[in-house]
Amino acid sequence: MKDVKKLDLSRSLELFEEATRFVPGGVLGARKPSDFIEGEYPIFLEYGKGSRLTDVDGNEYIDFLCGYGPIILGYREEEVDEAVIRQIRDKGFCFTLTQRYQNELAKKLTELVPCSELSVFLKTGSDATTASVRIARAYTNRIQVMRCGYHGWHDWCVEMKGGVPEKLYEDVHEFRYNDLDQLEDLMARYGDQTAAIIMTPFGHPLHQKMEEPKPGFLEGVRSIGDRYGAVLVFDEVRTGFRLAMGGAQELYGVTPDLVVLGKGMANGYAISVVTGKAEVMMAAGQKLFISSTFFPNSDGYIAALKTIEILERDNVLDNIWEKGGRFLTKLREIINKYDVGAELTGVAPMFFITFKKDEAGAQKGKRNDFYTQLIRRGIFFTPHHHGYICYRHTEQDLDITAKAIDEALAYVSEKYQK
Ligand SMILES: Cc1ncc(COP(=O)(O)O)c(C=O)c1O
Fold it and tell me: Residue 296 Cα, ligand 1 centroid: separation in angstroms?
């Protein structure tokens, strides 16, 4: 059994111990050690470049989390960073009023994203999903919301309910991805009071395998929304500027009323947007208040404009689909060699290796051993979240990764031999 040595993570652990004295739990949310494999993954990073990360102990990784999604080009992409630095140095980015880049970016979105007519810019994905629901409620004068997928940490949709009064989410009903019947049932009960159906158009549920839309699913949701007069919102915080320049709505040919974009739009800088049909979006200008000190800051607009320029100029998404497609084909061959219950789901730009439930209940052990073997080999995937491919992943990165996955599965296969 070809095991490899555990990483030296002593500095990460020291910093974590210090962090627990100043920050509740040391680090928050999805960055907690318990969201990885405790003792095997670093907790603090020092720097990154391209597809690579280096932790505070000097361990280097080929990274497939891409900052949990915003890194579509690569870490420290010079053209984007230079554009932002120039803006900050020569003009400034935080002012009393709005700078003109808002208009440029909103106009660009109308060219790229099928449903885009009017846009409201914010900072985070959670800001934007929450704004989209508020806009839909104001437009329809209705309260109920149907939702499918992770939409961030705000009260109406957060998974962990601690600190959230029930009344703040009691009008929000969850339906399963690819389950049109369940949505039909919910709408039969609440349809005439439903303001919005908000969903990820591609299935990427937390901790679980990924799902593409079954034939007719997205079209079915679209027609249910129309039938009941509910606003259809696609949450494309992960899929926007990743599956296609116009997002999953372009890839699958189903146009929502509103879409929420964030992450990949600006290669790591904070900006998000709700964009969509003018009639619905007008509610945002007339009936409600969306504002933050930081929403007009232009660093995010500049980063987004430059990122989009590069994505178009260098056909970045074609590159990701092509090399990612070859990589996934190779991974499928490797996975098929080992009878350990590993499953590869997703598509070239975003994919996940999970482990099927087995009779002996060994899937969790297999999964943890698999991901442990990968991180020890310097390959940064995690057991609880799918990976991404970015522009700066090289063929060599992908070859090294495929080899590591082969070795990690061989290890699991030998350890769990029946
Ligand atoms: C589909 C989706 N929607 C919304 C969000 C929330 O975005 P943020 O973390 O920027 O608030 C996320 C974040 O992972 C997401 O994946």
Answer: 20
CB atoms within 10 A of CB 21: 7
* β pairing state of 350-355 and 387-388: antiparallel
Q: Is 393 in the pocket of ligand 1 (CB under 6 A)?
A: no
Atom of ligand 1 nearest to the CA of 149: 1
- Closest residue CA from atom 4 of ligand 1: 151
Cα dihedral 128, 134, 139, 143, rounded to 10, equals 140
In whole angstroms, give the CA distance from residue 190 to residue 240. Answer: 29
Q: What's the farthest any 2 CA atoms get from each other in the chain?
A: 68
CA dist., res. 131 & res. 49, Å (int) = 33
283-315: per-residue pLDDT in tens? Answer: 988 889 999 999 999 999 999 999 999 999 999
| Beta strands per DSSP E along 123-193 | 144-148, 172-174
CB 105 within 8 A of CB 301: yes
Residue 315: left if φ>0, alpha if ψ -120 to 50, beta else—which one?
A: left
Query: What's the gap in Å between 10 CA and the centre of ligand 1?
Result: 31
**Pocket of ligand 1 contains residue 152 by CB under 6 Å:** yes
* pTM (predicted TM-score): 0.97
At residue 273, φ and ψ (nearest 5 deg) are: -155, 145
Give the number of the atom of ligand 1 that is nearest the alpha carbon of residue 272: 10
Is the CB of 238 inside a 6 Å radius of any atom of ligand 1? yes
pLDDT tens column, 47-106: 999 999 999 999 999 999 999 999 999 999 999 999 999 999 999 999 999 999 999 999
Decide whether any atom of ligand 1 lies within 6 Å of the 262 Cβ.
yes
Binding site membership of 235 for ligand 1 (Cβ less than 6 Å): yes
